[in-house]
Amino acid sequence: MAKANKEDYIHTDSGIGGQYKTWFLDYASYVILERAVPAIEDGLKPVQRRILHAMKEMDDGRFNKVANIIGQSMQYHPHGDASIGDALVNLGQKDLLIETQGNWGDVRTGDDAAAPRYIEARLSKFALEVAFNAKTTDWALSYDGRKNEPVTLPMKFPLLLAQGAEGIAVGLATKILPHNFCELIEASIKYLRGKRFEILPDFQTGGTMDASAYNDGKRGGKVRVRAIIEEQDKKTLVIRSVPYGVTTTQLMESIVKANDAGKIKIKKVTDHTAAAVEIIIELAPGISPDITIDALYAFTDCEVSISPNCCVIVKDKPQFLGVKELLQIATDNTRDLLLKELQIKLGELQEKWHYTSLEKIFFEEKIYKELEKKHETWEKVLTAIDTAFGPFKKQLKREITRDDIVKLTEKPVRRIYRLDIDELNEQIKGLEADIKQVKQDIANLTDFAVAYYENLLKKYGKGRERKTEIKEFDTIQIKSVAIANTKIYVNRADGFIGTGLKKDELIAEVSDLDDIIAFTKGGVMKVVKVSDKVFIGKDILHVAVFQKNDERTTYNMIYVDGKTGVSFAKRFNVSGITRDKEYDLTKGAEKSRVHYFTANANGEAEVVKIVLSPNCSARIKEFDFYFEEQEIKGRGSIGNIVTKYPIKSVKFKEAGKSTLDAKKLWFDNKFGRLSTEEKGDYLGKFDAEDRLLVVYNDGNYEITDQELTQRFDPEKVLMIEKFNPDKIVTAVYLDNEKLQYNIKRFKIETTTLHSKFFFIKEGKDNRLEMVSTDAEPILVVQSGRGQMVRKAKFKVVKLVEVMGWKAVGAKLTEYSKSVEMEWEKPQGKDDQQPELF
């Protein structure tokens, strides 16, 4: 039997191999062009376009059953009813092109729409105005050749950016985020006028958004979206919105999952969502609401990151563009469509003017009497009429055609009154005015397009204001908000630490994300991750959670060098390390040992008693050693000599004060955080026992500690400063019931931390206007407008006495929208000297 050659089994392009080559490309092209990616001209995918076209054919102003709309759409869309129904529901939920009736589901909760036979829809007035015009539409045969369907709809609005789009094709995907209706129109107007513009996403689900890395919606960009979480009380949080693309069910599942994993600690989560999103989270006892809010953003779907990928079909090819370019293209397309509509309208008006002018001449000059004359043939009648029009052809703007004359002869023969001629003259005058206006609009097309957009905004902009608040998010340090969900133990003698040593000494509760720092008697330091069991070194002296970049925790240490027998003392910080690396804190000689070791959170420097060996030759065998005399250096420093003689013992004698400067604090009014990194307003130097006074514009004050994980709403904080109980607080607030401003001076009498105290008069819309803790504040009040402006200065100390913090206070002045207040700055002088009271 002859051996077959390899070539015998290779098919040519016309065989199976060729089919495989073309089939995949054909399929990929079909999915990209016909299913997944929207067209740039109207921002629609084919199924959406066919649905809207079918609804336009059915439109009679009344609602139609969705089942009927699906059936009508199937004449154009060669797919099943389910795909059409899903696309229709998706369009309806966007609340722009389609008015809905019945249960259409809820994008916030993920609830599905009712069956198509139970729900109804019709095109919105907005859709009818911007999306349809048969005269400017390009048509093509439907898939079965029976009907015509639009190639693209003549969309006079940046629909793609308003609705957004998402689709997965073969080899590429698109994700265009929705933008605000009003902002898109305003941006289009700015573009038409040659001004710069910026557009950012806006979501139906609301929430807050950090779009600082949006990158114009191109690939590589990112948007962070957060739910709105409010602190109802110290034991309860309320989620008021869900991030875009996340349902309440998904959000709750992520919260339960994070709780089960030990990332957060909650007692209960309940969904009370109805007309508005409301998810209640009950906190476990002793858990900080501020830390829990941060943890919800860090570990659950309360914050999601969305990566846009703006891909559209341009001239039958997918292209990746930015949202600014998309808006420019959509606006240019709108202007072109408006021009085409104006040109069509101009042609129609001119044609109507031509025929009306013919009709006027026909009757006014009694050319119609040619019909009464005896002509041999109908053609000669038409020729005679045409000849009769000869003297008047210069008045017309185009040639008279045979069809024009035939149309005139078809008018009913009756007696012509002067009134009819006058009416024709009025019609011609009106047509000429319309023609002039259209020509003017064409000549000033940009102004016409701007007016068109302004009209859209006026008619349809109400209720479409921005729902998603734009703000920059702070970066949450995951380690600082992770709940301690496990326990760390130590076997000091054998030198092991870990979560699995449950029979040994408990050190602390830690999170899975923490690092642990440990020191041994041999002078070795090591930082390791939390794990089941890890070896550090025998005779462990100290174990704690390691805080990176901690420059306040100071380690005091006395050790003996194993080579020389000399003992050294050193003080050092550990701010940065390499995990799992061993660091020798001694000179590194064998048999070096640590005599004494302490960790001090704020650089405290104690006094110790050193007892030397009784057999040594030292004259003084007991003496005190003061750590405060030692400088804080790097962990690798050798330290200063304590003694050359052998030490028997080192014992703690007396606690010392911190040798570090007081901690400097800032209030970052951008993110509402306390900071040690010189961000925001400087608050001063703080010792460990110092507290903060926070005054809110709703009339509450709060005393709080220096914990950096606290969250404040910067829009509500009127004043934040170091708390001094001896200072007198001066406050001016609006009494909305009496329409007057009241003023009061009082001392803070409460000492409870993290509790708000309401100190102004209770009443609807009452609010705090001004607050100060200056010893002798001077308040400048300005009222009136223009030439009627009047300024007055009030020496508050002379105006009102110190009273209790719950007192109503005294009347300052009547309420007026023109009233402005400020505290006088010592170095500043007003140009207009006000009266002093």
Task: Produce a short descriptive summary.
The chain has about 850 residues and is α+β, with helices and mostly antiparallel strands. The longest helix is centred in the middle third of the chain and has 42 residues, at about 325-365.
Secondary structure layout:
Layout: H1 16-36, H2 46-58, E1 64-65, H3 66-73, H4 81-93, E2 98-101, E3 120-123, H5 125-130, E4 138-141, E5 148-152, H6 159-163, E6 165-168, E7 173-176, H7 181-192, E8 208-210, E9 223-226, E10 229-233, E11 236-239, H8 248-260, E12 266-271, E13 279-283, H9 289-299, E14 303-306, E15 311-314, E16 317-320, H10 323-364, H11 378-388, H12 402-409, H13 418-443, H14 445-460, E17 469-470, H15 478-481, E18 486-491, E19 496-498, E20 505-510, E21 515-520, E22 524-529, E23 534-535, E24 540-546, E25 554-560, E26 567-572, E27 583-584, E28 593-600, E29 607-612, E30 622-626, E31 632-633, E32 640-643, E33 647-654, E34 663-668, E35 673-675, E36 681-686, E37 692-696, E38 700-704, E39 717-722, E40 728-735, E41 740-747, E42 756-758, E43 767-772, E44 778-783, E45 790-795, H16 796-799, E46 802-803, E47 810-814, E48 820-823, E49 835-836
Parallel strand pairs: 8-17, 26-31, 41-46, 45-49
Antiparallel strand pairs: 1-3, 2-3, 4-5, 6-7, 8-9, 9-14, 10-11, 11-13, 12-13, 15-16, 18-19, 18-20, 19-23, 21-22, 21-24, 22-27, 25-26, 25-28, 26-32, 29-30, 29-33, 34-35, 34-36, 37-38, 37-39, 38-42, 40-41, 40-43, 41-47, 44-45, 44-48
| CATH-assigned fold name of one domain | Neuraminidase
**Can you identify the CATH class of one domain?**
Mainly Beta
Number of helical regions: 16
Strand element count: 49
Distance between the termini: 123 Å
Largest sheet composition: 5 strands, mixed
What is the CATH-assigned architecture of one domain?
6 Propeller
Share in helix: 25-40%
**SS-based structural class?**
alpha+beta
Strand content: 25-35%
* Morphology: elongated
Low-confidence stretches: 6-12, 828-837
CATH superfamily of one domain: DNA gyrase/topoisomerase IV, subunit A, C-terminal
Mean pLDDT: 88
* Gyration radius, in Å: 41 Å
